[in-house]
Design a protein that fits this description.
The complex is a heterodimer of chains A (294) and B (287). Chain A has one domain: Orthogonal Bundle (MetI-like fold). Helices cover 70% and strands 3% of the residues of chain A. In chain B, helix 3 packs across helix 10. The longest helix of chain B has 40 residues. The N terminus and C terminus of chain B are likely disordered. The chains are: A mainly alpha (294), B mainly alpha (287). At the A-B interface, helix 1, helix 3, helix 4, helix 5 and helix 7 of A face helix 1, helix 3, helix 4, helix 5 and helix 7 of B.
Chain lengths: 294, 287
């Protein structure tokens, strides 16, 4: 800890004031209102507000739509996190091999970081378009009929693939940074070349990457849960049926496409808050401690 | 690199080991080039599509390149979209950097009573992503009269816990002597901040600028709700409107639009990726 250098009673508070004020106005205040509204039944047009206690939560947990949305989100998030971490770890380890010319791969693999989820979705929508997609065409040669506009399971696979693709760059960037922090002799001793490369990787390199991996586990979970709205809105719009109706998409429809859904949407916000809080506790418990003391 | 062996046929082992060592980089180059191709293929395909007006979806580039990009530019009003999004991405990136530097500076270089509480308050933003407070935030914006304004698109994003932590962490590694010397020389807190601390923070500034610029450029849900006028519409929503049409979608044009929308964040990434990498390499010790 650095000892304070400058003495001034007021200045530091003035410096912190804008940030603190913005957090209070645009984060804390609306969040508290979410909590309050979650206990009300609200009619947007008529402006009627009726206290109903936990009714909104009861309605959600007995609604097949919401339960389905929870299930879809769980499947989607688990799949995205697993494949995104596995693929990016493999690519980062490959690209970090001390071989001449490999610097180029490091640059060429992180570019998807610049993509938006919406555009990633659009590109994959065309890649796997039932009529003109080159990937669908290739799959049909193997007798696989892939149609995300019609098949519910295909739709989930489709949004998962697009979401994974988009986040690869981010993950590879962090894995590369993590690998760069590992002493060179360890990397060389654990070179993918030679016998037992697999075992040596898991025994020597992977434990050292644990802090980055856990950090990315949290970040990818948040990404898949909260940042993929655009991907879904621009492609499947929650369908076919409700196959890709993830929690945030469901919340958006209740909160902004229905005149009576404000209370219901706010209750969904509070449930999301619960999920984020759990993740954050997990992060502080395991991720930070490991990173600080390793 | 060491090919240790206890086998009796040491010579043969050494020889195959040598061949392996020569072959290994070649094989790895092939593997990685293949991987790069797979990761980039969707983008290449998007580009091929953006040149086609007939026979869509074949891997042969068509002849409608210029036509598609012109159409996309005109239909989506791309110049205006780029301007609008640039205003938002630049203001938020710069605003966040300034607020984060000021906050971290206060916490590290001054005695702040209740500093931990204020830090905790700002850290709460991590707990409250937009969907957790979306309905009330939208209503707040309506009450402020900020719908379809640049304030509405930018101000709610100015606070940055990530940036604050990033700079706090960096300022801790700056030797105290530096500030002491500056003070002895008669430099006030702002002189020290501007002429010493900010210049040596440029790697972190670059890293945060990249993260925030890309983040804002790719915003979707918030602009969808609060920016529906031509004068404020953001680029992701502009691309959505190319698809959300009742007419038959011209995919060549859509892809041309999508590819144009990728260019600015890609440029920022290319220019600043070294900063980000350096920032991460020093920061991942306690992300």
């Amino acid at each position: 800890m650095v000892a304070p250098v400058f003495r001034n009673r007021i200045l530091p508070y003035l410096l912190l004031l804008p940030s603190a004020a913005l957090v209070l106005v645009f984060f804390i205040y609306p969040a508290v209102q979410s909590l309050e509204l979650s206990l009300y039944r609200v009619h947007r047009v008529r402006g009627v507000k009726l206290y109903v206690g936990l009714e909104n939560f009861e309605r959600l947990f007995t609604s097949t739509t919401y339960l389905n949305s929870l299930e879809v989100t769980a499947k989607f998030v688990v799949a995205v996190v697993f494949f995104a971490l596995a693929i990016s770890l493999a690519l980062a380890v490959g690209a970090s091999q001390p071989i001449r010319g490999f610097g180029a791969y490091r640059t060429l693999l992180i570019w998807t970081y610049a993509l938006s989820p919406a555009i990633a979705g659009l590109i994959w929508a065309l890649l796997t378009d039932p009529a003109i997609g080159v990937l669908t065409g290739a799959l049909s040669k193997f007798g696989i009929d892939f149609n995300w506009r019609r098949s519910q399971s295909d739709a989930l696979i489709f949004i998962t693939a697009a979401a994974v693709w988009k986040i690869l760059g981010y993950n590879i960037l962090f894995f590369l940074a993590g690998l760069k922090n590992i002493p060179r002799d360890v990397i060389e001793a654990a070179s993918l070349d030679g016998a037992n490369a697999w075992t040596r990787f898991w025994k020597m390199i992977f434990p050292l990457l644990m802090p980055v991996t856990l950090f990315l586990l949290i970040m990818n979970t948040l990404y898949a849960s909260f940042e993929t709205f655009g991907l879904i809105d621009i492609t499947t719009q929650g369908g076919p049926g409700r196959a890709t109706n993830v929690l945030v998409y469901n919340l958006y429809n209740d909160g902004f496409k229905s005149t009576t859904g404000i209370g219901l949407a706010s209750a969904q916000s509070i449930i999301l808050l619960g999920i984020v809080a759990t993740l954050t506790v997990f992060q502080y418990r395991f991720v930070s401690r490991r990173t600080f003391y390793q | 690199m060491s090919a240790i062996t206890t086998s009796s046929t040491v010579r043969q082992e050494v020889r195959t080991g040598a061949t392996r060592q020569r072959l290994y980089p070649v094989v790895m180059h092939l593997v990685m080039a293949g991987a790069v191709f797979l990761v980039t293929f969707p983008l290449i395909y998007a580009f091929i599509l953006s040149t086609q007006s007939t026979h869509l979806g074949t891997l042969v580039p068509g002849s409608a390149l210029i036509e598609n990009y012109q159409d996309a530019w005109r239909q989506a009003n791309m110049g205006l979209l780029m301007r609008n999004t640039l205003i938002v991405a630049l203001s938020v990136a710069v605003g966040k950097i300034i607020l984060a530097i000021l906050g971290a500076y206060a916490l590290i270089y001054f005695r702040v009573r209740g500093g931990m509480a204020i830090l905790g308050l700002i850290m709460l933003t991590h707990l409250l992503p937009l969907p957790v407070r979306i309905v009330p935030t939208y209503e707040l914006l309506t009450d402020l009269g900020w719908v379809n304004t640049f304030q509405g698109l930018t101000v709610p994003f100015f606070a940055s816990a990530t940036g604050l932590l990033l700079f706090q962490q960096f300022f801790r590694t700056v030797p105290t002597d530096l500030a002491d010397a500056a003070r002895v020389d008669g430099a006030g807190p702002f002189r020290f901040l501007l002429s010493i601390l900010v210049p040596i923070s440029r790697t972190n500034i670059g890293a945060l600028f990249l993260i925030e610029f890309v983040y804002m450029w790719n915003q979707y849900l918030w602009p969808l709700l609060v920016a529906n006028s031509d004068q404020t519409r953001q680029i992701q929503i502009g691309i959505k409107l190319l698809v959300a049409t009742d007419a038959v979608i011209d995919w060549g044009t859509v892809m041309a639009g999508a590819l144009m929308a990728i260019v600015p964040p890609l440029i920022v990434l290319l220019v600043l990726q070294r900063s980000l990498m350096a920032g991460l390499t020093t920061a991942t010790d306690d992300v």
